[in-house]
Structures are given as structure tokens and as C-alpha cells.
Please model this.
Amino acid sequence: MNQIKHLNIPIWCDAFLDEEGKLIFPIKLGTNTLKAWVLEWTGIPLWLLNECQGYTGSLNEALALLLGSPSDGVTGTALQEGFERWTNWTEVERKDWLLSVFVAMEVEERRLLLSLLQGRRNAKILMNYGLGKPSTAMDFNEMITLTVHAMLLYVRPTGRTNAQFELTFGLYHEGAYIGCFRANLGQDVDGGWIQGLDDELDVLTWINGNLGARIGPIRGVTPGEIYELQCIGVQRSSRHKSGFKSESVRILKWVRGANQPSVTALDWVRDSLPKPQDSGQIG
Amino acid sequence: MALVTYTPLGFYCAQADLYIDPLRKVSKALVTHAHSDHARPGMQHYLCHVQSVNILKLRLGQRISVQAMAYGESVWMNGVEITLFPAGHVPGSAQVRLSFRGEVWVISGDYKTVGDGLTPAFEAVRCHHFVTESTFGMPIFQWREQKTVFDDINTWWQKNAAVGKPSVLLGYSLGKAQRILKYLDRSIGTIICHGAINASNIVLQECGFDFGTWEDGSRGLADLRDLGVKMDNCLVVCPPNALRSAWISPLGNYSLANCSGWMAVSKSGDWGGIDKGFVLSDHADWPQLIEAVLGTGAENIYVTHGFSEILARYLREARGLNAVVVEQSMLERKME
Model:
């Protein structure tokens, strides 16, 4: 669990890393095995499952719905621990554990987990359970995580309503702020809070009340608000104006009343990254 | 000959010369509830539960000939004992029990077996022949507890209100709308009802149903706004067809949600630009359908509108019952 401690947030389990630290998550489970397990659990015949699949247009959706309303009793830890023990378990143990987890999950979470089990690369992160899959292969041994104070520069509405924004944050460099990090904030399509901040509603309300000039799809906001960010997988990039990119950005908190000198200097981030010749990465 | 048969006009009891929820004009119609796919205009005489009388008159005209019955009360027609029992679907909804010379039929109409706190709770009635609906007769339809759903609805409303956005919630004007009204958190903002819902509310309140306060939107939302009703934190309850009218336009930019059992399936979320779907139905889900069928003790099951083929096959093969599909010319999707 070194990576989890390192990140201070549970994103991936060691069980999903190979000996070289490359991501091998998710473990895969055949569709027929899943179907057989759910049929046994629910006691419905195969033809009825096929009818459900035909109606919903998706086996995963049918399986997720067939398990009914969520029951109590699963936690993120239980899910991760189960996956870590997976390889040592018998098929019966795997089935009992997976179904007990499934029935406790929300239907949407079941759909996502099923996608992960089937190796779908586009499966969204199961935020509540701390399980996820990056869009590209990542080398955990080389990954750098930095915590910075950054200035909110722009926002871009990303949903149909003003309840979801992509935020662009800047770091200080030679008398100006350079856009470096992006993170989403607000409500997702199911009404859940994307960042899970205690005051995410306050942040959303503030943004809606302080929208400024429109530049294409981007809106400016009243300058001066500073946020503490955790930037995961920061690496050099010649394609970015700042000189680096981040695989994932998590907003830790809105630092209310912070003054501008507290914003992290862009040079500090650059200096924190290995030199290209050290890491073998090219610019 | 069976006590009840299915004819092109609907279920018919020849001995009593009585149709149940007939599809065309007949002399005597027993109406299980006042939704328009069960209570149709043009019958010479209507028979229904006492709490459906005023709603029927609202919808079909004040001059209809209608006789009211209470739950558990029996009426005799040519030797046939006719009794109504609660169906739990919407206010005034009833199951019909017909008994003649020891043969007992129950026609459920639409129903749900889980109580909603508004409508009298469903009662399982022992019988030999049971006619059941199957609107949600697939095991993918399994409802969550009502309280959980209303917690979600109130949270959604609260979040919209916090950013100054009105909320619009779609629900059928009889039953669903009043159920929604009963459990909304009025500390969040003002509740406004469309005129069609307002009219049903007034009639049901006169019948003794209690679902709290609301603002009457029948004069138009612009009028309410001019009268000082705050719109930025309001919740508007309206039937789906209101979205196609100018009535909704004074709200400007709003968040739209639908309350329906069909929202359980994700493809339903794509309907008409709905932002949020709440899975809330006045029909029985799969477990309730099975529970209701088994609760009657009936050997013969007749499955009507919905996923009738699927439910009938399951009852035959997995439960060993004599279940058949009742052919209906009307294949319309049940109103939700």
C-alpha cells in the first residue's frame, strides 16, 4: 500500500501493480462467470436475464439492476482488501465476496465496477470506493505528487446547468499567473459532489456569483481566490506553457482570505521535478 | 362459462352485465381508478370507490351518473357480489372482487403493495382467478424505499435553490403529484403546482387527503412572480405536457427532473433533456408483483398491460401457476 500512503488518498491498490510498478488493474472476470453468479444469487432463469439485457440494451446495466436496492455494509476498505486477496481466493470465495460487495453498492457504482472488471478503459473512477483507472499507463515508481497553493483564474461550464465547472488554476511566475492545473468541481450528472469538499456548495455558489468576462467557452472569475491542490503524477511536458503537466488534480480546500504572496511559484514546481536526463523523460 | 371474460370492450362479467375499466362506451362500468386509461368518458353509469367520485366528475364532467362504494362494502348485481379493496395505486384506486356461487375473481387494476402514506395500503384478497397488471413486470425494476427517494429529491431541490435555479419536477397530475407534494421539504422554498395538478389537489383535499400547502400556478407563473413569489428557489410540479406549453417559459433557466419508474433504466435518462431522474412509481415493481400474485392464493393468473409475456412465463415456469397473457388491443404505455 505504499502508493496509497504516498498519495494520502486511496486511489489504486498495490494488487493492481505488477512487479515493475506498472498498472495491471483491473482484474478481469469473464462475462459468463458474472452472469452465472448473478443468476445463482437472484434465482432467476437465464431467459429472464436475456430479456432484461435486451430491454436495457446492456448486460452490465441488467446485472446491476437485477441485484436490487443497495444494502448496507460495504466500505472502500472492504472493496480494496477484497481485490488484494483476489488472487489467493478460490472461485467460491471470489463469488461470495464480489456479490456481497455488489449488493451493497449503488446501481451506478455496480455498472462502473462491472466495466472495470471487463477491462473497459473508459470506466469512470469509483470515487466513493477509491478505485480507479487512469487514462494512460502510469509508472508509480516515478510518479511525483505535489501540494501547491494556486490562484483560480478561469472556469468553464461543463454541464447543462451552472452546477459543474472545469477550473483552471495558475501559479506565480514573473509578476503574472500562468495556468497550470485543471480540476472539475460541482455536481456530477447523478447529483454527487465531484471533489467531495465540505464547502463545495459554497465554492459553487461563489463561482456563480463571481463570473466575469466570457472568452469563448471560458469565463473569467473575480481574481484573488486561492486553493490548495494536490497534483498527482506531475511530469515535465514541452507541450504545456508551464513546462509540466499533471495526471490528476484534486482540490484539497479553498484557502479563504489567503493573500497573493502565498501562491506557489511556478519555478518551485519545475525545480521539484527530475531533470530530463535524470528520469529519462524527454521534455 | 367463466364469471369474467375478456372482450374487445374490456373485462366483462356477463352475470352482472358489468364491465371493468371498459375501453369503449358501455352501460355499466366499474372503474378501478380515475386515470384516463381506466376511466373513459361516455359510459351510461359508473361505479367506483367513493374517493374517486369527485375526480371522475372533474375529468369526465359533473353530469355523469356515478355510484360510490367504500372499501369492503358489497354491492349485489344479479347474484354477483361485488366488493372493492384498496389497491394502493393512487387515491381512490381499488381492486375489484367478484364472487358468484363460490367462484371468486379479483381484478387488480393498477396497484402497488408498498404503502406510500397517502393512499390506503394494498390488501391481498384470496381468490381463484387474479387479474394482474405488469407495467414493471421485469426483475430489473426494483424500487428503493420511498424515504430515500424523497431525500434525494429534496437534496436536488436544495442544491438548485442554493445557486438560484428553479427546479421543475414532472409527475402525473393524479397520484404522483400529490405523493410528491406530501414529502417535499417546504423549508427550501416555494412549491408551485400546474393548474391540472391544482385542480386534482383541491378535489382530493375535499376527500380528506392531506399533502401540505402549495401555490396555485393555474393563472400563470408570470402572475405569481408579479405577486412576489420567489422563483429562484421554487420547485414547480407539473405534468410532462406542461413543458410543451408557454406556461413554463417565465421560469427561464431551470433544472428539470422526472419522477417515474422508467427512470430506473439509464436510457430513460436521455428522455427530452431531463437533468435528473428519480425512480418513483405508483405501480408495483417486480418483487411486489410476485408478492401480490402469491398473496392471492389464486391458481389462475391473467396478466395484462406491460411486460405481460415475461411475467406470465415466469409465473408458469418458475412458480407453477396457470398464468396467461390477456390480449389487449390497447398497447399504450402505462401512464406514470
User: Anything to note?
Assistant: The interface with chain B takes residues 42, 44-45, 47-48, 51-52, 55-58, 61-62, 65-66, 68-69, 107, 111, 160-163, 187, 189, 191, 201, 204-205, 208 of chain A (CB under 8 Å).
